[in-house]
Amino acid sequence: MMLHGIRVLDLATLAAAPLVATYLGEFGADVIKVEQPGSGDPIRGWGHQRDGVGLMWKSVSRNKRSITANLRVPEGQELVRRLTAHADVVIVNTRPATLHGWGLDHEALRTVNDRIVMLHITGYGLSGPKRDRPGFGTLGEAMSGFANITGEADGPPTLPPFMLADGVASLNAAYAVMMALYHRDVHGAPGQLIDVNLIDPLTRLLEQTLLGYDQLGLVPTRAGNRWDISAPRNTYRTADGRWLAMSGSSPALALRVFRAIGRADLVDDADFSDPQRRLARAAEVDRVVADWVATKTLDEAMAVFDAEQVAAAAVYDITDLVADEQLAHREVFVRVGDHELGAMTVQAPVPRFSDAQGRVEHLGPRLGEHNAEVYRDLLKLTPSDIDDLRARGVL
């Protein structure tokens, strides 16, 4: 496996930070999930449950080993410091002041292991006037500018019904960890602290908003599924009550749409063929496309668009998604056996390499399931040591 030999201590909870450890574990890193005794990571109780088992936990904590340590007591803190000596990466999302009080901040841990790469994901970042505020992905989606430009023109700012800000932050953080490891292992540098928040990564994707404001003084408003750099670009309802999405992002694609729907006359009309002039008439373009699509079933419309190489796709619900032949061919979803649920279908690792493969060896473990093996193998604790720590509430 590509990351064989890399050990990660996942001290974080909920979504963004633990997802980074999940990605690393899919490609061979040994991920040790450190949880609070008794309760564990709150994501265990988050979202859908089956027979009292959290489904999100099962997926997000795939391939991880679960141990417990009470970080609120000195003995639990000392266990983590000792584990840090055997780790390459430590992932946290606790407030900086709390970590400092526990003696588990970067300054403290690098005295134990100066090669440690520490990732700290917070709501607002480790510096600035809002650094100590609690933060969640919803706030990142609001403050990044995403919610303000998402939704219908006459509707409210719209939040996504999934963890968008957490997911984008986790992807940024995962490649940051790999860069820090490369810098350490290839260039002989020490480990370092990586500071990621839930606002900056999503803001980084909203380039058009910033550039238009900085250079042209534009403040965008909500426009539904339209985007002011492309037309046609929307979702369109078919005669059988289904929906398809279309993008005319390149000049050639837009002209193909007109030909496909029998409006070749628009190809010769500069108001519609010229990209910038067409944007000024985006509402008219939408009406022309919508009127044509409304006369066709989804299958009929897609047959025409596929034949004309128009960039269009059906809007899938989850049943369509898992049944799609393209996704099935790429094995986007995998069925994994589990000792609590029997089996569960989850998303497979996303990056595809020519000479390596990500894997899901097991789903999220029971709380503290790997206490004995981790503390025995890494810290040389005996069974009686572990029993004593457990009896005193340290494990």
Automatic annotation (TrEMBL):
Question: Does the keyword section mention Transferase?
Answer: yes
Q: Which GO terms describe its molecular function?
A: transferase activity
Report keywords, A-Z: Transferase
The reply on keyword Transferase is yes
Q: Which domain of life is it from?
A: Bacteria
Which SUPFAM superfamilies does the entry mention? CoA-transferase family III (CaiB/BaiF)
InterPro entries, alphabetically?
Answer: CoA-transferase_III, CoA-Trfase_fam_III, CoA-Trfase_III_dom3_sf, CoA-Trfase_III_dom_1_sf
UniProt record similarity statement: Belongs to the CoA-transferase III family.
What's the protein name? CoA transferase
